[in-house]
Amino acid sequence: MARELRTRIRGTPGFEGALVHLGVGEPAVVTRADWRDQRAHQRVLVDGPEGEVLRSLPERDEVLDADSFGGAPVAGIEGPDSEREPGLAVVAKRRVGGRNNALAMADLLHRSGDWKRSFPGFVAATPFISPDWSVYVNYPRWVDENAYHAYMADERNSACQEDIARLETSEPEFVMCAPFEEIGVDASGDHEPDS
Predict the structure, then answer these.
(1) CATH of domain 1-68
(2) Residue 1: CB partners within 8 Å, gap ≥ 6?
(3) Would the CATH topology of 1-68 be identical to that of 71-180?
(4) Does domain 71-180 have CATH number 3.30.70.100?
(5) For every one of its 195 residues, what pLDDT tens digit does the chain have, with 9 covering 90 and above?
(6) Which residues pair with 178 in a beta bridge?
(7) Is there a contact between 148 and 90 (Cβ–Cβ < 8 Å)?
(8) In this structure, which long-range contacts are made by residues 103-111, counting pairs with CB atoms below 8 Å and at least 24 apart in sequence?
(9) Which of 32, 131, 136, 143 has the fewest Cβ atoms within 10 angstroms?
């Protein structure tokens, strides 16, 4: 995945960088790619020859499952360690069924965010909403796995779970992953995060 991004995608018009993650506790590769706009993404990954190898990944025998999500970021929250490199991330994909629920989910993140803004080891949470408003993906990050477990064990974290469940139309999907390689727009932008 990282090689394809470096050799075929980096340098294409509208590509603004990517971060490749490896699954923690499960064999998974998660890539967060940033594009100038939806047209650039469509032109390169969906329609262009540069994205052909990435589009064919689900057909490979060694790939058990493949999923893709496209969405625009909305205002997130930052923790006290927002200047540090994240060591762990979770991709939380929630089907919310429409605009009202997607916006309510984003609002809920902010309303429940006061304690998160000062929680040691919390880096940030960035939500994304699909163009059709049916999917809300949250991308929270922590400095390491210990910070993640402490955050999840905090009783304040469970306070809004019922509100979240009311906004969902099906069971959420979660992938825990660790940043592996950052792909910049040129060779000088690449680095592997500290482990």
Answers:
(1) 3.30.70.100
(2) 20, 29, 31, 54, 57
(3) yes
(4) yes
(5) 888 889 889 999 999 999 999 999 988 989 999 999 989 989 998 898 988 888 888 888 888 888 888 899 999 999 999 999 999 999 999 999 899 999 999 999 999 889 999 999 999 999 999 999 999 999 999 999 999 999 999 999 888 889 999 999 999 999 999 999 999 986 444 444 444
(6) 22
(7) yes
(8) 103/129, 104/167, 105/136, 105/164, 105/167, 106/74, 106/75, 106/136, 108/160, 108/163, 108/164, 108/167, 109/76, 109/77, 109/138, 110/75, 110/77, 111/160
(9) 131
Task: Enumerate the domain spans of the chain.
Answer: 1-68, 71-180
Secondary structure element (H or E) that encloses residue 179, with its range:
strand 173-183
Strand partners, 87: none
Token pair 């993140």 is at which residue? 109
Amino acid at 35: W
3-state secondary structure of 89: strand
Q: Record the pTM.
A: 0.86
β-pair partners for 32: 19
Closest CA to 128 of 88, 68, 81, 170: 68
Secondary structure class of 40 (helix, strand, coil) = helix
